[in-house]
Structure formats: C-alpha cells, structure tokens
Design brief:
The protein is α+β, with helices and mostly antiparallel strands. The protein has five helices and 14 strands. It binds fe (ii) ion.
C-alpha cells in the first residue's frame, strides 16, 4: 500500500537524452519528454502529476488517483551551490525515515552528536512536520575540534520529502539537505540525498576563495552521507520489528502519518 505524497523520480537532466525508467511502490514508471517537448511522468502506464525542485522531478503518488493536496517548498536563495546528489539503499519504508524527526534521542545515540535537544517543536501542521534541534555536531576532526555547536531546522512534507537547513553557529557555512526516501518496493527504499552549501561572510577571492568553497562543499557532502548512513541500522531494525512507543511524540507521529494513507476520508 502506498502513502500518498511527492516522491523523487530522477534529475530532470537525466531524461534530456533518453527516457528514464524508474520503479516506485513496486510499479514500473517512465519519465520522458513527449512529442511537444513536454515532460511526462507515467507510473504503471498512467500519467501522474509532477513538479520540479532542486533539479529533481517529483511524482505525485496517490493510490486512488486524487490530485495533489499540498505543494513542495520552493528552494530559492542567493549564494547557494548547485545541489550535489548521492543515494543509499536501505531495507526500510519512508515511514521510519521520517520518524527520525520525533526521536530526539537518536541524534546522540545513532548519529554521534552531543546534547541534541529540541529548540522548538516538533510541530504537526497539516502535511508538514517541523522541528528545530540544537546540537553539537560530530565534525569527524580530532581532539577539541570534534564537536561543533550548531542547530538545524528540519521539515517533512509528507513521507517522501525532508528538507533540513543547518545554521552553523560558529562556522563558515550554511548547508541545506534533502532526504528523499523513494519506496522501490515494499520495505525497500532508495534514499536520495541532496546537499547545497553557502559560505558565510565574505568569501575569499580568486583561487584561494574558490578552493575553500570547493573543499568545504566536498567535506560537507562526505559528512552528510556519513550521518545518514548511521541511520541505516535503525531504519532497517524498525522495518523488521515495528515499534510504536506509547509516548506522546511517537503517538502524534503515527496519527500524523494516517493522513497519507488511502483509507483516509476523501475530502
Ligand atoms: Fe537520523
């Protein structure tokens, strides 16, 4: 059974030369430019609504064919790098990926951060789930440089799209991250990871400045993939042994996810 929402298909550029085949919820799909040069996304032979964000095409999935009832945010802003993409395959479901947002303890226990706590939220608002977390990031550097105070705001728009903005309190970059779980089959996800960075202050000019931006951007890409890979065990374990703790935030999360199920009352 598929949860309705926006799910990533492929980068728009990927289908400029030839159609892109993909799989979602156990169904084959194709993304292509039609005879009049218009982009088309078909799943199981049916045209589905789509939108483009961060050069990525997202398909609207709804098991009983309802039109989109929410939109994804526009990712604008000055000074940001192009999005860089990678992915991880994990035996899980988007339900468990998005659940991270209500599990503040896992940031220390699983990600190796220190003293992670909610600065505000979680807030459930229609299709959106938002949190603001203050934490000490594991930089991967030795000694006194190992932890770095930071905070992030993270928002899920349904179960297929999570956007995180990291506000660096003592460093030289802002970063933003997309975590896009794509359910290939039941219990099998490809998680697309996008990252874009913006240098703070006045970037150096010339080769030195460009070099600093490049190294920082590459390092952040590496660290982002490392951080998400640390979730793998948790997400796979929850898929194998679903747990529903009787604590207010977990209960609220389960209630929030119900709106994306096809049995919900048609409005
Ligand atoms: Fe996590």
């Amino acid at each position: 059974m598929s949860a309705s929402g926006w799910y990533a298909v492929a980068l728009l550029d990927d289908c400029r030369r030839e159609p892109v085949q993909f799989r979602m919820f156990g169904v084959d799909g194709i993304m292509k430019f039609g005879p009049e040069g218009r982009l088309q996304v078909l799943l199981g032979g049916h045209l589905v609504p789509f939108c483009v964000r961060a050069s990525m095409v997202f398909a609207w999935i709804d098991e009983i064919g309802r039109e989109p009832d929410f939109a994804l945010p526009i990712l604008g802003g000055e000074g940001w790098t192009e999005w860089a993409w990678t992915h991880l395959d994990v035996d899980t479901d988007p339900h468990w990926v998005m659940r991270d947002l209500v599990d503040v303890d896992h940031y220390d226990a699983v990600h190796g951060y220190r003293s992670a706590r909610y600065a505000s939220g979680p807030t459930f608002d229609g299709h959106r789930l938002s949190v603001h977390v203050a934490f000490n990031w594991d930089t991967g550097l030795p000694g006194p440089l190992k932890y770095f105070p930071a905070s992030f705001s993270s928002e899920a728009f349904g179960l297929g799209f999570q956007l995180t903005n990291v506000l660096s309190t003592a460093g030289c970059y802002n970063t933003r991250h997309l975590v896009l779980p794509v359910p290939l089959e039941d219990g099998r996800c490809r998680i697309l990871l996008g990252v874009s960075t913006r240098i703070l202050g006045r970037p150096g000019q010339g080769i030195a400045g460009a070099g600093l931006r490049h190294i920082g951007h590459r390092y952040i890409q590496w660290a982002f993939r490392r951080d998400i890979a640390r979730d793998r065990g948790l997400w796979a374990a929850l898929q194998d042994h679903p747990t529903y703790p009787n604590e207010p935030l977990f209960v609220a999360y389960e209630a929030w996810t119900q709106q994306f199920q096809s049995q919900r009352a048609a409005s």
